Amino acid sequence: MKKTILLLTMILATGSLFAQSQADKILGTWLNEEKDGKIEIYKTGEKYFGKIVWGKELYEPDGKTSRTDRKNPDPKLRSRKLEGLVILTNFRYDDGEWEGGKIYDPKSGKTYSCVMRFKGSILVIKGYVGVTWLGRTTVWTRV
């Protein structure tokens, strides 16, 4: 009986570790489709987030002054720097997808519901309003 319980515990733990490793497959640095920005996806607790870590348009022409989130609809947030800006928030992993989160587009100042999934080695990201089929898809590649 003890051997059966031990074996069952080991099987459950292995399955849990496999699911966790699949969920964490998204962690790392990604190059956006336009190849003008890098986003680092990280985990806090059981949720996944992403922040801008590099971009061609992060600095003013002087190369020293950081650009700000000037298209944000909230005037109080327009002075925050684009570098380090969190654009992916509160994603949960479920059955091969990261869902329930939001994606912020600093180029337009708009926030969308979002779902992410892998297709081979690329990350397919779909931002949408209301229902997923009304959305726009972009693909990111791992750096």
TrEMBL record:
Residues 28-142 form the DUF2147 domain. Keywords: Signal. It comes from the Bacteria. Gene3D superfamilies: 2.40.128.520. It holds the Pfam family DUF2147. The keyword Ubl conjugation does not apply. Residues 1-19 form the signal peptide. The keyword Signal applies. PANTHER family: BLL6627 PROTEIN, BLR1215 PROTEIN. This is DUF2147 domain-containing protein. It comes from Chitinophaga tropicalis.
